[in-house]
Amino acid sequence: MLKYVNLALFVLYPLAWGAPLMHAGLLPLFGLSDISVLSGIATLWHSDIFLALVVALFALVAPLVKIGGLALIQFGGLPRRALPLINALGKLAMADIFLVAVYVTLIKGMGVGRIEIGWGLYLFTFCVLASLAIGLLESQKEATK
Predict the structure, then answer these.
(1) How far is residue 102 from each of residues 9, 76, 145, measured CA to CA in Å?
(2) What is the tens place of the pLDDT at every residue in 90-143?
(3) How far apart are alpha carbons 117 and 109 in whole angstroms?
(4) Phi, psi at 15, each rounded to 5°
(5) Minimal CA–CA distance to 64: which of 97, 16, 114?
(6) CB count, 10 Å around CB of 42?
(7) Roughly how many angstroms between the first and final C-alpha of the chain, as a whole number?
(8) Which of 8, 16, 29, 128 sees the fewest Cβ atoms within 10 Å?
(9) Burial class (CB in 10 A: 0-12, 13-18, 19+), 27
């Protein structure tokens, strides 16, 4: 069952990347614009290419490599001894959740702008936590053998 939940993340992660993480605006009088993982990377690309690449690595590449690696282990394509390395990749994706939380806290604390959490943040958080849980459950399965 775990392997099919893991494979579902191949669909859910890209959906989460395009979904609105938050809706932000400068003042309450102006409309809010949607901010997603993909739009954030695109915006960063124009101002700081290195930071855009780092965020893309943590938000896009690391989760996909982890899901793919776990799938290979679960379906017998990779030896189970690769599991600790695959699980370490999942921890990189948690950096995104931390950064989003810091940005939301900073913007709300400044009182200049208005920010509302979008459904994509919950989906993205679910994907990261589900991936971590699957990795932990796979590790426990390994330990009981």
Answers:
(1) 25, 39, 41
(2) 777 666 666 666 666 655 555 566 778 899 989 988 988 898 889 889 888 867
(3) 15
(4) -65, -45
(5) 16
(6) 11
(7) 18
(8) 29
(9) exposed
